[in-house]
Amino acid sequence: MEAQNVLIVDDDKHLTEFFHKFFSKRGYQMHVALSGEEALKTVEQKQPALMLLDMRMPGVDGVQVLKTVKEQYPKVKVIVITSYDEEYKKAANQYHADAFFAKPAGMVELTGAIERLLQPDDPPEQAAVLDAPPGMVPKAKLLFIGFDRASVFSAEAALHQIGTGSLEDETKDYPDAGVYEMDEASTRKNALEKLKEQRPDFVFIPIWWDDTEHGFIEPHRIIASDLVAEILSSKYAPKDVFVLSGSHWDPQEARTQKDKGVEAGGSLVEEPFWLSEDFEKQSTKINRILWEKCKKFGLMAKRPKP
């Protein structure tokens, strides 16, 4: 069977690189557009079967791309993947996007949505998302791969502040903190061991991470697509894996600077993920994701007493 064309539209070149590599290995013919203008030209030339579309882009934004594609190329399936925003969600519904995901999208759910939309003759049933009973909160094991210890500690502290009045969820839908067991892994080997030993429910990993397994004097920075694929194919695979962007560290640019004798600095040094965006928005984003996922899988427990 001929590979189906999938177009990735996002001005985050690191995220498009991750998606390109990950889904190419799953048999799709991948194309990339880093702007809305480029996306519309590529749709006209390539006629993709499906598009992964970011909404928040300079110039021609994703809303205009979605509207145009659905009017002129109605057979193209469109999955919106964007930073959570009620207006973008409304636009996705208004212009008939086929699916909507808030970043960071879970790779299991996203992969399933792509397969479902490209196999319309016999689509698998989607699992219903259950409402959380009163007095119940999420309870799950989380594994952070490739994050520095300070980021993981910051994540844990932030998630436990939800509902205390210190942080406010912009959606108002998930005001309470969950009950989470958090662990971390710094190498591929360590990550796979913890999958087996700890059996985490959900895994978080940055697009680029330092593989220090072989004792490099300088960290060996690699894109996470192969490790994510390996995790998802493991017999101990978690319920979902979230790939987190937000870093401005560019490995190619860093190598170029180094060749010129310039030390990497400023935007070339990746800051801890939890500090890469506004602290409050980052924590409420993860809280929102975990609420949705835990409700879906029935991972709920009684709210702890103060």
Which sequence of strands runs across the widest sheet? 2-1-3-4-5
Examine the coordinates and then state which fold CATH places here, giving the name of the CATH topology of the largest domain: Rossmann fold
What is the total domain count?
2
Q: Could you estimate the helical fraction of the residues in percent?
A: 25-40%
User: Whole-Å distance between the termini?
Assistant: 58 Å
Radius of gyration: 20 Å
The CATH class of the largest domain is identified as: Alpha Beta
Pick out the low-confidence regions. 247-258, 260-275
Major sheet summary line? 5 strands, parallel
Number of helical stretches of at least 4 residues: 10
- The best one-word shape is globular
CATH-scheme architecture of the largest domain: 3-Layer(aba) Sandwich
Mean pLDDT, as a whole number?
A: 81
Count the beta strands. Answer: 12
**Could you state the order of secondary-structure elements as H and E?**
EHEHEHEHEHEHEHEEEHEHHE
CATH superfamily of the largest domain: Response regulator
Strand percentage: 15-25%
Global structural class: alpha/beta
Question: Topology, pairings included?
Answer:
Layout: E1 5-9, H1 13-24, E2 29-33, H2 36-46, E3 50-53, H3 62-72, E4 77-82, H4 86-94, E5 99-102, H5 107-118, E6 136-145, H6 149-161, E7 179-185, H7 188-198, E8 202-206, E9 208-211, E10 220-223, H8 225-233, E11 240-244, H9 251-259, H10 279-297, E12 300-302
Parallel strand pairs: 1-2, 1-3, 3-4, 4-5, 6-7, 6-8, 8-11
Antiparallel strand pairs: 6-12, 9-10
Helix pairs in contact: 1-8, 2-3
